[in-house]
Input
Amino acid sequence: MDKPIDDDALWERFCDVIQTQEDSFTETKGDKSRSYVVVIDDNMYYRSMRYKYFQLARKYEQGFCQVHLQCTKEIAKERNNKRNVRRVPDEVIATMATKMEVPDSSVSPWEKHFITLKCSTNYQSQLGNLDRLVQSAMSDPPRSVLEDTEGREESQQICSVNQLHQADQILRKLVGSRIKRTGAAMSQQARGQFAKLCSVLKSQILKELRGGNILVPTDIPIMDASKMEDSLFYKFVEAIFITRLQDSGY
Output
């Protein structure tokens, strides 16, 4: 089997590559005969996942664009089953499809350069459109600093999305561990009811976070909190989840 990829290590490696290319980018800036195109291939279903790449492009004042490959759940599952390594459980694909945040410049102006291709599309026929997309993005690099009010509001929105993403990941872990630990001594029926309750509580907490009914202290770091059980945000979400379980009689 292939060795699992550590997301943080991969991100650091990517940043290192960009850093080593900085002098070359600078030397050839404006020289259309020597242009670089860096392709990032990942699902990145949350907008916040894609935003950090936009930030990197903005830092170096390089063009940024997105190609959204639209695929049905059925075809995704079919192709996934044909993979020899790193197959994804069907339920993960189904969940990801419901959470997919497609590029939308009306929601986030920084996503103005994008194209959507359906999985049934003859990609060869779209090469011209893809080339125009890249050229358009390269001729319109993002500003290095968001100075206007719109930019600040957008940045706040991205932070909010990342907060929900981290909370979702934390709650998934909490639900899984609690069902395994508490449900071990239950009958199959009781275990199923308990699992359903945990799922409902998870959805309620995320809804309240999204609606602002649960306010997160501004001094609590959010970035990668789901990977650190001792992080303040992890403890914050965990305390809410446990309290809700206790209120439900568990």
Summary: The beta strands are 66-70, 114-118. The longest helix spans residues 149-182. Residues 22 and 250 are 56 Å apart (CA to CA).
